[in-house]
Design brief:
Elements lengths: L1 H4 L6 H15 L5 H23 L4 H28 L4 H14 L8
Helix pairs in contact: 2-4, 3-4
């Protein structure tokens, strides 16, 4: 299982495989609704970490805060990947499709 994490070009499919195996090995809760709640909690922790980053007064505080933000973003990503697994969605495919649609989308009205 740790072989996946040591790959140089780690992709979403790899992350989904890793989290599938991790859930099984660690007997993690796979209830969809509870995991949405866990993701919400992680988003709250991310927001708190961003606030600390914005308030950093020196380079040491900024580096510590940036590391904390990175950890919280990683936790959020882990829950998104797990949720995709629970509903059997290929997250990489879904992401590419959605971004292709976004490329064609008009975000703001054109001014004349």
């Amino acid at each position: 299982m740790t072989d996946i994490l040591s790959k140089n070009n780690l992709g979403l499919k790899d992350l989904q495989a890793f989290h599938h195996d991790l859930d099984v090995e660690k007997h993690f809760d796979q209830d969809m609704f509870r995991n949405v709640a866990y993701l919400t909690g992680e988003i709250g922790e991310f927001v708190s970490a961003v606030r600390k980053l914005r308030k950093a007064n020196n380079e040491t505080e900024e580096n510590e805060a940036r590391n904390h933000v990175a950890e919280e973003l990683a936790d959020c990503l882990a829950y998104v990947v797990k949720l995709a697994n629970y509903v059997e969605i290929d997250l990489q495919e879904a992401y590419v499709k959605k971004m292709q649609r976004n490329l064609k989308r008009e975000w703001h009205p054109k001014t004349k």
